[in-house]
Design brief:
4 strands, four-stranded mixed β-sheet, alpha/beta, globular, 2 domains, 12 helices, disordered C terminus, Collagenase (Catalytic Domain)
């Protein structure tokens, strides 16, 4: 019953007109927005509207919550579920934003973001903007933290979100575990694609892999193709679709692989 009511409310919010003053914030801070076209662009904007009007945004450390902050943060969240569903954010109720990095009173070191089990994501505004300014370095704080929310949607931070079909869990577990262990062992292919922070645990591995999937898809497809395939199946799209350079590279790899296979056959 609650799910039906929530879905009805979201449909109503999605039908509301987009405030036109939001668009300059997307054009200024969100590089991937210009790549969205047609129905995909409209779906993104609908998700953006619902996220902003449904979630609570709270300023901390002197941070003022403006439309700019809401729109940019929501854009990073909407991007992850563009081909999924907002139900992955059902457990999320609040986004807390600091102006910059912050510290916990009872801990050492600085924090740029975190996702908590009680339905809160905490972000550094500086880190959010920096992650968007460098869209191909594989490091995006907001993407990382919202990936944790997707992971938690099924009840646990364990590196396995709710997948699209039961038959996807076995290959997902095999591929993700394999690359997680290789990253822990500092294997070259994984280090070229994934930040070392992903070796902390399975949940961090999924969040780091998500960053790379969206920001370094060409490198991921080249060096860890099975990992790329699993993330592509979960997120429901190919980041390199229509990318001429990426497609050319992929064709060369397949051709090279085919030539090696034929030589091997002749040797036998």
């Amino acid at each position: 019953m609650f799910g039906l009511i929530r879905a009805w409310k979201r449909r109503r919010l999605a039908r509301r007109e987009l405030p036109q003053e939001w668009l300059p914030h997307l054009e200024r801070h969100v590089p991937f927005f210009s790549d969205l076209e047609g129905e995909v662009r409209q779906r993104f904007l609908d998700l953006l509207k619902v996220f902003i009007w449904e979630k609570s945004f709270v300023g901390a450390g002197g941070m003022e919550i403006t439309d700019e902050v809401k729109v940019v943060v929501a854009a990073t969240a909407a991007r992850l579920v563009l081909h999924l569903d907002l139900t992955y954010y059902d457990r999320l109720s609040e986004v807390v934003v600091y102006p910059s990095h912050y510290k916990h009173p009872d801990a050492t070191g600085i924090v740029f973001g975190e996702a908590n089990s009680w339905g809160t994501v905490v972000l550094s505004w500086d880190a959010v903007i920096q992650g968007l300014k460098n869209p191909d370095d594989g490091h995006a704080t907001a993407t990382h933290e919202f990936a944790h929310v997707l992971d938690r949607a099924d009840g646990a931070f364990d590196g396995t979100p709710e997948l699209r079909a039961w038959g996807h869990y076995a290959p997902w577990t095999q591929v993700m575990s394999d690359h997680y262990l290789k990253l822990k062992k500092r294997k070259r292919a994984q280090r070229k694609v994934l930040r070392g922070y992903g070796a902390q645990n399975e949940a961090e591995f999924f969040a780091v892999a998500t960053e790379s999937f969206f920001e370094k898809p060409r490198q991921m497809r080249k060096r860890t193709p099975d990992l790329y395939e699993e993330l592509m199946r979960f997120y429901g799209f190919d980041p390199l679709d229509g990318d001429d350079e990426g497609d050319a590279d992929h064709r060369k790899e397949r051709l090279s692989s085919g030539k090696r296979g034929r030589k091997g056959k002749r040797r036998r």
